[in-house]
Amino acid sequence: MLTISNLVKSFGGESRSGGGRVLAVDDVSLEVGEGEMFTLLGPSGCGKTTTLRSVAGLERPDSGRIVVGDRVLFGRGINVPANQRGLGMVFQSYAIWPHMTVFDNVAFPLQVRKRSQRPSKREIRERVGKVLETMELDHLADRQATKLSGGQQQRLALARAIVIEPPLMLLDEPLSNLDAKLRENLRYELKRLQRELGITSIYVTHDQIEALALSTTIAVMKDGHVLQTGRPREVYESPNCKFVAEFIGTSNFLRGKVVSRVGDCVEIDTDAGRVQLVSSAQVPAGEEVLAAVRPESLELSTTGWGNRPNEWPGTVTNRAFLGEAVDHIVRVGQTSLRVRCNPSVSIKPGTDVFVATEPSKVTLVPVG
Amino acid sequence: MATLAPGAPGVLARTREALVRPRTLVAIGATLVIGYLALIPLVYLLLTTFTDATGAFSLDGFARAYGDPRIGQLIGNSLWFAAGSALVSLVVGTGLAYFNVRTDVPFKALFFAASIIPLVIPGILYTISWIFLASPTIGLLNSLLEPIFGPGTFNVFTIWGMIWVEGLHLSPIAFLFMVAAFRSTDPSLEESALMSGASRVQTFRRVTLPLVRPALLSAALIMLVRSLESFEVPALLGLQNGIYVFTSRIYQVLRGYPVDFAGAGALAVGLLALAALGVWLSNRAGGGSATITGKGFRPRPIDLGRWKPVVGVGILAYFFVTVLAPLMVLLYTALLPYYRPPSAEAFASMTLDNFIKVFNLPSVPTALKNSLVLGAGSATIVMALMAVAAWVVVRSDIPGRQILDHIAFSPLVIPGLVLGVGIAFVYLRSPLPIYGTLLILLIAYCTRYLPYGMRYAVSGMQTISTELEESAHVSGAGWWPTFRRVLLPLVAPALLAGWVYIFVVSFRELSSSILLYTPGNEVLSISIWELYANARFGELAALGVLMVLVLVVLVAIAYKVGARIGLKD
Asked: What are the boundaries of each domain within chain B?
């Protein structure tokens, strides 16, 4: 559906070649399938928005190639202007035109078409009406666009983006201006709509929970590079580097040396003790590696199990009640591990405990 | 009173105590001075206008001024001139602002250079430059075009010439106004129109323009008021052919014999009413619909593509016409021993004699000294007053403090010439020996620049956290030590910026001075006025060139100081 190849975009510096230029997007290649909700996830300044704006045509890349369907939007000698790309876009600020009514905002993309392709007034009214109905805004059609609540503005921005039935919809942090509760509601709303309408979408966010909840595929970006692409569960459970493991959720890291490797079963020596894990990575014995474990994958016991492969003795140093869980900080050897427990479990600091996890829950991550 | 418990301080005592606190005394003092400066001229203007020789109420002045058969033409000319100039400045200014803020137009540095033109070329010099360029008899452009179009292609002494000169001189102000408007509009509003498939032209017409419409309307009214108040252009270009507007007619009435004070006052009151209406409407228009903006947008310039060279040439042409041509003709005239059209002999005869001659004129060194004294004096007085007044408005809880704000801003509405009329009326009647001294000009300048001083001081003070003062209070400092040792040092950069700005603008003041100066009390702009009246163009141009050079240096300093504290005009 959308193919981005070797996209490069730099900013700053007065001259094209001069120093001081920053590579916002550095050799990014992505493949987005039909009907996907594809998320670009990363901290601010990672290049996700620049990538999106390059697809939109609002930013002119230095080099690379952008193809939607079989139409080249950007490539050697080709740069289709933003207003001829026919894509839908929802801006972070929504960019609702304050001088127009709700209806006019949605009708605008149809009204500005070339005379030959412009639908009749009646058809415009019908199509806008239908979209407003889908977005549950039909009763507000005549209202001034500034007189809408945050959630309504968001739906209006969405309505305007889909009214031309674009092959691809671009969403630039559309939920970041809303309060936490509304954001959660709209997240599900957005997912439902996207699935129902079947529009291929690219979604930019820095919120990992949003990305996990919404996406069919996540691409994690940092410093203009894509670090990992995969299903939300894949990215969460098997991060391919320390950054991804830290950025998505929380991780405990255990540094150690590979001791042995039998099939997919790897044993490493860390200062917390011996760690067993499952990995297909080709790591020779003696190599320095990092093992990553999520706090919720760790279990806590005051008595111990005695027969588990990854079971380490330690001491609780701190605990925090979080409502839906209780976090314990457990000191194992020289390492502090965060262990997330059921709220019914609460162990006093100073208590000696055992921490354990399944080898399949431990991920091997390259050092650095 | 009798019911008060023994020992409880009485209301009177408490009030007395509050009144003698130093902060209150200083605040009251500043308010009185500001009130005197801003309001007394208006009171006397009305008094003189509405009374006859015996002091009884009378509308004779109005009858004489507005019963004149040419009054219809005068009002028509005024409005036509104001509307035309406003339109020229707005179209040019808005176009330039759009290209500057929203596109990757080349020569952006020139925009900046052009935008400070009204500050560095006083209106009187600008007008005279255009006379040198486009007068039917001596205009340089006309002599250049004579071989092609015959003599007198352009005639600056017409209403069209007036509109052209005033419009161009105002265009940088319209530009700055619209730059602010375009900058405060979220570019994603335009980007989303592009994404919706709208072309650039459609986007500009259907999204950009409607969004800046309140600002545009407000700017239009401000330009209208400024052209109505303009004195230099109508006086120098219009009087010659009997094209009168309010300002030039008031001047003429006051220079006539016998002087009809009430008649001039009536015209001044009419002009003041028009200006006040314009400013009021403009404030209403500006406060219109708010733009929805996203958080922290960075403006991204639109790629002009193949239009880039076309627009670039347009910018160069604008820069040449508004900046280079007037300056060059001034320099050209200054270097010639006597004025004549360009030729090989003309260039061969160039000398620096005029620069020496101008300082041998008896009035010029005095005028230079007077301008410096008045500039420094009014800037110092205004900023000292405003340091206190801004504190009263921004920080104190004194009831009615907003009134002080309004009073300090009121001279902004009063046309310079009307202020001159009002102040002349005050001190013609006053027993104080102020009329005919430099002091009357100082009073006029202080009054005119109150609003600028207020703006600098208030915005400077608003940027300073109250906690800094509160912590001084908690440390045991009273009002005065806090004001002097904490607040003043912190707002000092803003006060300094205001000082430099007032110093700069006082240099080009003409419209108030023209009614208040007496021989021996000339300032630089008056010297130029007199040199023009005596047709001593060479010396005039030399003085003009020097004045522009001085102003360029001063404006550079003003921008340096202003940029450091984050204030821009």
From this structure: 24-564
* CA distances, A110 to each of A131, A166, B362 (Å): 12, 12, 74
Which range has the worst mean pLDDT, A172-186, A291-305, B6-20, B149-163? B6-20
Location of structure tokens 């149809």? A110
B297 touches chain A (CB under 8 A): yes
- Closest among B337, B381, B330, B275 to B122, alpha carbons compared: B330
| B interface test, pick of A50, A112, A146, A154 with most B CB neighbours within 10 Å | A112
Count of Cβ atoms closer than 10 Å to residue A263 Cβ: 7
Structure tokens belonging to residue B197: 């498939």
- Give the dihedral of Cα atoms B134, B139, B145, B147; nearest 10 deg: 150
Interface touch A56/B192, C-beta < 8 Å: no
Is A178 in contact with A14 (CB distance < 8 Å)? no
Question: What percentage of residues in chain B have a pLDDT greater than 90?
Answer: 34
Q: Give tens-digit pLDDT for B505-543.
A: 898 899 999 999 988 889 999 999 999 999 889 999 999
Instruction: Give me A256's structure tokens.
Output: 């150690």
Let me know if B532 is exposed, middle or buried by CB neighbors in 10 A (0-12, 13-18, 19+).
middle
Q: Is B88 exposed, middle or buried (0-12, 13-18, 19+ CB in 10 A)?
A: buried
Determine contact: A262 vs chain B, CB below 8 A.
no
Q: For the domain with range B24-564, which CATH number is right: 1.10.3720.10, 1.10.760.10, 3.30.465.10, 1.25.40.10?
A: 1.10.3720.10
Between CA A24 and CA A223 the distance in angstroms is 7
Q: Which residue has the tokens 């619209």?
A: B178
Query: Per residue in A30-61, pLDDT tens?
Result: 999 999 999 999 998 899 999 999 999 888 89
Residue B205 CB contacts under 8 Å (≥ 6 apart), including other chains: none
Is A88 part of the contact surface with chain B (CB cutoff 8 Å)?
Answer: yes
Decide if B188 touches A, using CB distance below 8 A: yes
Chain B touched by A89 (CB under 8 Å):
yes
For the stretch B121-133, pLDDT in tens is: 899 999 999 999 9
DSSP state of B105: -
pLDDT in tens, B317-341: 999 988 899 999 999 999 988 877 7
- Could you tell me which of B446, B328, B445 has the C-alpha nearest to residue B385? B446
What distance in Å separates residue B302's CA from the closest CA in chain A? 9
| Residues forming beta bridges with residue A229, ordered by sequence position | A219
Rounded to a whole number, what is the distance in Å from the CA of B290 to chain A's nearest CA?
A: 8
Mean per-residue pLDDT over chain A, rounded: 89
Tokens standing for residue B93: 């200014």
- Candidates A59, A60, A87; nearest CB to B195: A87
Digit-coded pLDDT (tens) for A119-162 = 999 999 999 999 999 888 999 999 988 888 888 888 899 999 99
pLDDT for residue B36: 93
CB atoms within 10 A of CB A267: 17
The three-class DSSP label of residue B230 is: coil
Q: Give B162's DSSP letter.
A: H
Which run of H or of E encompasses A169? strand A168-172
**In chain B, what residues touch A83 (CB-CB under 8 Å)?**
193-200, 203
Contacts of A41 (CB under 8 A, 6+ apart): A48, A205, A206, A208, A211, A218, A219, A220, A221, A247, A248
On chain A, the residues whose CB falls within 8 A of the CB of B188 are 91-93, 95
Exposure on the CB side of residue B16, measured as CA atoms within 13 A: 5
ipTM: 0.74
Contact A94 B294 (CB under 8 A): yes
Question: Percent of chain B, pLDDT > 70?
Answer: 92
Q: What span, in angstroms and rounded, lies between the C-alpha atoms of B47 and B42?
A: 9
- Rounded mean pLDDT of A231-244? 90
